[in-house]
Amino acid sequence: MQTIVKTMARAPGDDPLEFIMSDATVDRMGDVIVQSGWDLGDFVGNPIALFSHKADLPLGVWKNVRVQGGALRGRLELLPRGMSPRVDEIRAFVEAGMLRAVSVGFRPIDTEPLPNGGVKFKRAALVECSVVSIPANPNALAIAKSLNLSDDVQRVIFGEPAEQIVAIERSGSPGEPASQPPVRKPQTMKTLAERIVDAQNAVVQQKDALTAHLNDENFDETVSDEITKSLGEAESKLASLQRAEAALATKTAAPNGTTGTVIVERSVDTRRPFAMPAKKSAASDLIVRSAVVQLLSHIERRSMQDVLTGRYGEDDSIKAMLAITTKAATVPATTTAVGWAAELVQTATLDLIEQLVGKSIYPVLRDIGGRFTFGRNGVVSLPARSSGTSVAGSFVGQGAPIPVRQAAFSATPLTPKKMAVITTFTREIAEKSTPDIEQILRQAIQEDTGVAIDTVLMDAGAATVIRPAGLRNGVTASTATAGGGFAALVADLKALVASLITSSNGNIRQPVWIMNPVQALSISLTQNAGGDFPFAADLRAGTLLGYPVAQSATVPQGTVALVDAADFFTATGDEPRFDVSDQATLHMEDTTPLAISAAGTPNVVAAPVRSMFQTDSIALRMILDMNWAMRRAGMVAVVTGVTW
What we know:
The chain has 15 helices and 28 strands. It is α+β, with helices and mostly antiparallel strands. Among the domains are: 4-164, no CATH class; 193-250; 283-354, no CATH class; 478-573 and 631-640, 2-Layer Sandwich (hypothetical protein PF0899 fold), CATH 3.30.2320.10. A hairpin with a 5-residue loop joins strand 24 (597-598) and strand 25 (604-605). Helix 7 (283-300) crosses helix 8 and helix 7 (283-300) packs across helix 10 (341-354).
């Protein structure tokens, strides 16, 4: 089980060394930690206090760690003066009350989901607590300068090069104004149109900065307020420039044959909308952005072309992707040339799957094995050599006939199977800024697609006309070693490797471990007889016994598989297809969805169901042709019910 990190900045009182390490408030992820459920047993045995989770920068130890007043509290006891010059300088900053944020790392023991989508951590084991660099005062930099902190320590605290840290200009003496640098006019003044474009870009940059900070685990209200203030100033400047442009663009003219009457005309040129910067979309963003356009077109009841222009400007790449993913009758001529749009769409589809890395087993196996696209033929044939045949030569005597051997080959066809996933959103998503909508859709597509693929990939179902076979299909799981501990772990790993070696006649090539993240954590925390953790370093590097480890929550706990990924072959369609609906009624089930109702004795009604119309929600459906197969049989070994 992975260690979770939560950060908070809150002062419990006037003592700068007394910290609130955690409390029961709901954080921005919707999670809450029950404070009475803290397990402090392991932590109090080694309560080292680090700075920003850096093992090479210990500050001291935590004392009197306890749950009091509905919060986890502790007192920071810094290292004695003189032991570390860097810590001595940070000490001055802490004692000045400028660093009030701490970040706790913990392992969940007992959890339950919350209605808002968050998690309630009912019991958790405290692993580590660090002081982190979220200044509690907007003048923290000036105070750091006044305390004569070195550039090195300022870089540690503020996270930027010292040469980029600029102190606040101070007056020479009380009452004396600060010196002002001379104002130099540029030699070439920008045109009004150029200044408007710059102002538009400034607004976009401030919005992106605010979005990034709101999504940062080290969120700080002071920084958020400063960015919001800067955003308001940028928008005010843009509005002022646009009013000036409109005034200058107004022309007056008297109609022919009349006097005293004027006609007012506007001649403002159409300029690129500033919802997004004027830059080419990366291939990895095209699918997500085309989904954004389709979703907003449905919500706002506007044409997709209007939404595209309003959100992204004139981007031919997105136009091409949008036309293909919606199966439009026509595509802009500049994007349909052979050798351009097709390759672009294939690249974008591959990039979409690449983004599942870290969330899905499928792309790990695909990257090591063989990957194809169905193309126009709609079928991919995988040749494989049949087992039990050999073309090996042999020694023969003079004049003796040379043996003639024939190798037998078989072919496994891969035909398109329809992988589909539906993700739902409330209509309020349209109120977000464009980068926010992209992030929400990207995360939803990544998570939902990863779960949809891995659930089928790791089951034992047979191949049908609807779906491919799961990797565990036809595989007899080996019996786990009883007794638990290091001995059982080694025995089970050895048995899995031996199984692949035997079934491949020693020709094992690219093995990959597949397991639940909880199982990987158990391996890293398993000690040998000497008290060491032999596999901890391997797991941190993403390997085990030199083989890569793919983790997914769709793998049942207690189940571990070893797959020779060199024999995993997969094919996908050229492009995904998106559809949007606000009228559908869905069975909200991600494993075995059913028809809403089915006749029978008695009749079967799926539950729970959700009406998109009744809940003012939007459903986004993605369909992508996909199939996979193992080229050789016996290249998957599985053990279930492990005891470690």
